[in-house]
Amino acid sequence: MDRNLQFLAPLNGINEKRLRYFYTVMMFGSMRKAADILNIEQSAMSRQIQLFESELKINLFKRKGRHIIPTEAAYLVLEYFKENKNRENELFDSLFQLQSSQLGKVNIVSSESYMQHMIYDVLRHVHHKYPNLEIQLELMSAQHVVRHIVDSLAHIGLAYNPPFHTDISTIAHKIEPFIVAVPAGHPLAKLKHRICLSEISAYKFALMPVGHGFRQLLDSEMVRLQVNLNIGLTTNSIYALKNYVVAGHGISAMRYADIADAVKEGQAVALTIDSELCNMAQTQLMVRKNTHLSESKHLLIERIRSSFDLIF
Q1: Can you give the three-state secondary structure of 98-133, one letter per residue?
Q2: Rounded CA separation 214/263 (Å)
Q3: How far from 20 is each of 37, 48, 52, CA to CA, in Å?
Q4: Distance CA 301, CA 97 (A)
Q5: In terms of Cα–Cα distance, which of 285, 293, 305 is closest to 146?
Q6: Contact by Cβ (8 Å): 145, 158
Q7: Which domains occur in the chain, in start order?
Q8: Distance CA 205, CA 253 (A)
Q9: How far apart are CA 77 and CA 80, in angstroms?
């Protein structure tokens, strides 16, 4: 088909009713069948098609007895109709999703570390603008956060050091070094240099289970250095890790933000790890690639980004 085919006169707007008649004729290949489908007389259908051709100033069909054969112009008009119908469907889909988000539910999956800001800052602003919006907030490992986003079980994900996935789009992030937290008065607290994980192998250590961003960093460093940790506690709770340290039971590793209040109160000390990998670890805000984001989801994303000082 010649895509450069031009109409003989510019269009001043297409009659939508006649366009629908034309489409029906194209679909059924017959004026009579199209007229039956639309419950009008065949003569009325023929008249509408003739008027449509007059408006476009080009023939859409060749007549051979009782049969009609579409011209190249007819296929161009058909393509125009389909493209506009697709845009119309996309618009209604978007409006439906927007309405669902405003009046329905948005699912967020996150690591436990981010709960305080989520509850006290993010939700307060979002509920103020969308009082009917229900937010489902689930806590899980970084690995499960990614899986929920990829499988469309959640709309927004927030995690520390999540695994890479080709279907995930990281829309904002923040570098948050992975640190070793030790009780105040602990022998390691006196160190003035960056600590190597080989220096902590003699002390009781609390860590996250496999699948959490914290654990992935530790496992990578232990393999690189060929050292083992003296594990005293495994837990999926950052609250438990922090209090394990504050109570003096042993040491752990986490984001500085997770232990910052205890450090300020003199209950713990945060030590920088001598590792480029640990120092470049990130908090990442994620959505599934090519997903539609409604106004309420955009507001949630912006509040999360602002609350956690993430950058685009």
Answers
A1: HHHHHHCEEEEEECHHHHHHHHHHHHHHHHHHCCCC
A2: 19
A3: 12, 10, 11
A4: 16
A5: 285
A6: yes
A7: 16-77 (1.10.10.10), 102-171+285-308 (3.40.190.10), 178-280 (3.40.190.10)
A8: 8
A9: 5
The separation between CA 115 and the C-alpha centre of its own chain, rounded to angstroms, equals 19
The residue ranges of the chain whose pLDDT is under 50 are 1-11, 103
| Whole-number Å distance between alpha carbons of 137 and 129 | 18
Q: At what angle do helices 16-28 and 42-56 cross, to 10 degrees?
A: 120
**22/46 Cα distance (integer angstroms):** 10
Token pair for residue 137?
A: 């907030």
d(CA 284, CA 279): 15
Q: What is the pLDDT of residue 97?
A: 56
